[in-house]
Specification:
Number of strands of chain B: 11
CATH class of one domain in chain A: Mainly Alpha
Structural class of chain B: alpha/beta
CATH superfamily of one domain in chain A: Glu-tRNAGln amidotransferase C subunit, N-terminal domain
Shape of chain B: globular
Oligomer: heterodimer
Distance between the termini of chain B: 26 Å
CATH topology of one domain in chain A: Histone, subunit A
Largest interface: A-B, 63 and 83 residues
Strand order of the largest sheet of chain B: 1-3-2-4-6-5-10-11-9-7-8
Shape of chain A: flat
Number of strands of chain A: 2
Chain lengths: 110, 509
């Protein structure tokens, strides 16, 4: 079966245009190229149209299912256990300095 | 006499225990075959033969010294590259983790290590397990050993190609929407997605946390059951792990092979290839599945058709839920703590470095899903998309519950078509997603489901899916073993034994 390309919930296709995708990319820290913005705009519009079919379901009085297994919070015993050695963890980091992760500047030049 | 690399894991284990065979011999046989053939197949991203042989020699030495060993000791295994492995490169198929050597083992990797298995290598996969053909790997194409111009399925396509192609006796995969079952089906393997929560997710690089499950991919139902038993069971390090013992899976696989299904009620799901729901399904696939159902009837099962109307919405619900969870899970890949970092030249600030690292480190499907997931979770759209999808998930679960009031297992095709040619769907996300049509309902409901080979169509493998209620994974193995035994007996050999002649004939029937 192919997705039926129907529409129901919000005005799907237009919702994921080029500008909206650029905005979402900023929110999700993705420096998309112009070419990607063009390509994704076409593809994601079609995908959104298809997934919007969930709007067809009659869900009055239906609770959302967040999880397959009905577990409530699982807490471990409050006992200290050793964590990974610092040097082992930092060995996998792209940059480390003074026993810490080294990161680029967080504030602007001002 | 068959090659060592053609034997089942069960037979290899018997020979190892009887000291008719050493772990070094079997490990070397696999390494030799990988060396000779993986260039054409592309199943592995990483193989460290020297370490594998050292490990095999250590197992042999322990056995020679009379140390007590478990049934898996000395058996080689391959792991999908989504499992973190201490000191062994792990990428999840993504450039963003290129060169990373994790500082710890996933629980399932640790359990296999403790059982004395020998890690052959890490297998290729769709990047972050997003895909159904393994073409979304950032590293290489993997080919189906039945026909090298076709996909091995995905996202666990490196594992499926390795096991079907004789490059590993068995392997682990992960299944979020079908990523064990669909590759198993299109390469002629047995692949099982366990009940959600019954196999630990600790150390699996997360894609969609409410759906991800690890499971076995093997040449026989018994091998799959044995591997499942080795990795399954409660893990305090996974807060969604179920604190209950596994059912006796290998025992059920052995018993099932006797072929007495007289107490079994089987439901055939109309919405998955039944009347009025055949669009997109190949005739050959439907025919093999129908024959398998007749076979079940012949072994005494009572068969009826069952309707699960909400399954029609599984595909749209899944492709909202999985991208939403992925957009959140993949936020951890920001180039600060592990993996690559791009443009850290003093001219770019933290936000820019993160955005440029993710731009360079992620491939197109991952970016599409992050964008879609971020959108579906946005204020103002959350209820219409993500919230609505979670309610559809409840409806799907209700359909299963209603069906299982009348039948013990549900059956369907695993995937609507046989392995499709490489390159035919990779630029059309919706066409790619359709490969998951039949596997998604059990994923969304968290239920166990197995793929077992049920014949060939156009010379390529077809899989029968058997779904069971939560924690009743044993039923999947029992019924799959009955199907396997009956078909093997009629054929006069194992399913995969047909592969060499079929592949030599160019995959044509």
């Amino acid at each position: 079966m192919e997705f039926r390309r129907s529409m129901s919930t919000p005005s799907a296709h237009d919702a994921l245009g080029r500008d909206e995708i650029a905005h979402l990319a900023t929110l999700s820290r993705l420096a998309l190229t112009d070419e990607e913005l063009d390509r994704f705009a076409g593809q994601l519009g079609a995908v959104l149209d298809a997934v919007a079919q969930v709007g067809e379901a009659d869900v009055a009085d239906v609770d959302p299912m967040t999880h397959a297994v009905p577990l409530t919070n699982v807490l471990r015993e409050d006992v200290a256990t050793p964590s990974l050695p610092r040097d082992v963890v930092l060995a996998g980091a792209p940059a480390a300095e003074d026993d810490r992760f080294r990161v680029p500047r967080i504030l602007g030049e001002e | 006499m068959p090659e060592l690399t053609d034997l089942d894991a069960a037979e290899l284990g018997r020979r190892l225990a009887a000291r008719e065979l050493s772990s070094v011999e079997v490990t070397r046989a696999y390494l030799d075959r990988i060396e000779a053939e993986d260039g054409a197949v592309g199943a592995y991203l990483h193989v460290d033969g020297e370490t594998a042989l050292e490990r095999a020699a250590a197992v042999d030495a322990a056995r020679a010294a009379g140390e007590e060993q478990g049934p898996l000791a000395g058996l080689p295994v391959a792991l999908k590259d989504v499992f973190v492995t201490e000191g062994v490169p792990t990428t999840s198929g993504s450039k963003i983790l290129e060169g990373w050597r994790p500082p710890y083992d996933a629980t399932v990797a640790g359990r296999l290590k403790d059982a004395g298995t020998v890690l052959l290598g890490k297998t290729n996969m769709d990047e972050f397990a997003m895909g159904s053909s393994t073409e979304n790997s950032a590293y290489q194409v993997t080919r189906n050993p039945w026909d090298l111009s076709r996909i091995p399925g995905g996202s666990s396509g490196g594992s499926s190609a390795a096991v079907a192609g004789g490059l590993a006796p068995w392997a682990l995969g992960t299944d979020t929407g079908g990523s064990i079952r669909q590759p198993a089906a299109v390469t002629g393997l047995v692949g099982h997605k366990p009940t959600y929560g019954s196999v630990s997710r600790y150390g699996l690089i997360a894609f969609s946390s409410s759906l991800d499950q690890a499971g076995p991919m093997a040449r026989t139902v018994l091998d799959a059951a044995v591997l499942h038993e080795a990795i399954g069971g409660h893990d305090p390090r996974d807060s969604t792990s179920i604190d209950a013992p596994l059912p006796p899976l290998a025992e059920c696989a052995r018993r099932g092979a006797a072929g007495d299904l007289s107490d079994l009620k089987v439901g055939v799901v109309r919405e998955l290839g039944g009347e009025g729901h055949t669009d997109g399904y190949e005739e050959g696939v439907l025919a093999r599945v129908a024959e398998a159902v007749q076979l079940l009837e012949g072994m005494g099962a009572e068969v009826r058709e069952v309707s699960c109307p909400s399954f029609d919405l599984a595909l749209p619900a899944y492709y909202l839920i999985a991208p939403s969870e992925a957009s959140s899970n993949l936020a951890r890949f920001e180039g600060m703590r592990f993996g690559i970092r791009v443009a850290d030249d003093g001219a770019h600030d933290l936000d820019e470095v993160m955005a440029l690292t993710r731009e360079q480190g992620f491939g197109p499907e991952v970016k599409r899903r992050i964008i879609l997931g971020t959108y579906a979770l946005s204020a103002g759209y959350y209820e219409a998309y993500y919230g609505q999808a979670q309610k559809v998930r409840t409806l799907i679960t209700r359909d299963f519950t209603a069906a299982f009031a009348d039948v013990d297992v549900l059956v369907s095709p695993v995937t609507p078509t046989v392995a499709f040619p490489l390159g035919t769907r990779v630029d059309d996300p919706l066409a790619m997603y359709a490969a998951d049509l039949c596997t998604l309902p059990a994923s969304l409901a968290g239920l166990p489901a197995i793929s077992v080979p049920c014949g060939l169509s156009e010379g390529l493998p077809v899989g029968l899916q058997i779904m069971a209620p939560a924690l009743a994974d044993d039923r999947c193995y029992t019924v799959a073993a009955a199907v396997e035994a009956a078909l093997d007996s009629a054929r006069g050999g194992r399913f995969l034994d047909q592969l060499p002649t079929r592949a030599a004939a160019g995959g044509a029937a």
